[in-house]
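Progress note, sequence design subtask.
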């Protein structure tokens, strides 16, 4: 399993399980442009500028575009900038198969 399952003081698995993460898409670590908070969010491949046929485990954050998602501290939908594709979380959801 990848080392992105925990990151410093953050529990990325717990963040992924939160309703605030969203329900559809691949798990990415992203920064809210409004408040600067970094959280796990789900982003649809097309929403982040990728083809639906793309293998998300091969993506790098620099290939992804910003996407809109709710930021609860900001109190609205705002732009998020992806900083990492969380392949460890993605693989654990898929039962270890990439």
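Output:
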């Amino acid at each position: 399993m990848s080392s992105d399952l925990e990151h410093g003081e953050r529990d990325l698995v717990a963040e992924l399980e939160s309703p605030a993460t969203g329900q559809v898409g691949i798990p990415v670590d992203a920064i809210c442009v409004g408040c600067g908070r970094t959280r796990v969010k789900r982003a649809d491949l097309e929403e982040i500028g990728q083809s639906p046929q793309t293998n998300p485990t091969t993506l790098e954050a620099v290939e992804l575009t910003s996407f809109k998602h709710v930021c609860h501290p900001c109190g609205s939908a705002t732009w998020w900038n992806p900083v990492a594709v969380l392949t460890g979380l993605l693989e654990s959801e898929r039962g270890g198969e990439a």
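The chain has a mean pLDDT of 89. Work on this subtask will continue into the next period as scheduled.
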